[in-house]
Amino acid sequence: TESIAAEVKQSGIDVNCICPGSVLTEGYVEAFGPQEDGEVRMMAPVEIAKLCTFLISPDSSAVTGAIIDAFGSSNPLFNS
Fold first, then answer.
1. Of the candidates 27, 3, 30, 37, which has an alpha carbon nearest to the alpha carbon of residue 17?
2. What is the C-alpha to C-alpha distance for residues 28 and 22, in angstroms, rounded to an integer?
3. Extents of the domains making up the chain
């Protein structure tokens, strides 16, 4: 991500990578069934969309070459 960002920065292009955790989509439900009560809360697609919206906005002009982990509460490090 940083290498590509460095290559295209002079053209005014920012490059970032979003690494989402578990996202509750229709495809997920079709493949694995509905989420069980008591499981780790999965993110809604709109949560990732909001991150994308930020990254394409002028407010993110200082962010380039970043890898953004968007795990929500699906990261086992944050569960007790």
1. 3
2. 9
3. 2-78
CATH 3.40.50.720 fits 2-78, yes or no: yes
pTM listed for this prediction? 0.79
- Pair of tokens at residue 3: 């290498």
Ramachandran bin of 66, using left for φ above 0, alpha for ψ from -120 to 50, beta for the remaining angles: beta
Chain segment 13-50, per-residue pLDDT in tens: 999 999 998 899 999 899 988 877 666 778 899 999 99
| pLDDT over 90 at 73, yes or no | no
Say if CB 24 and CB 43 are below 8 A apart: yes
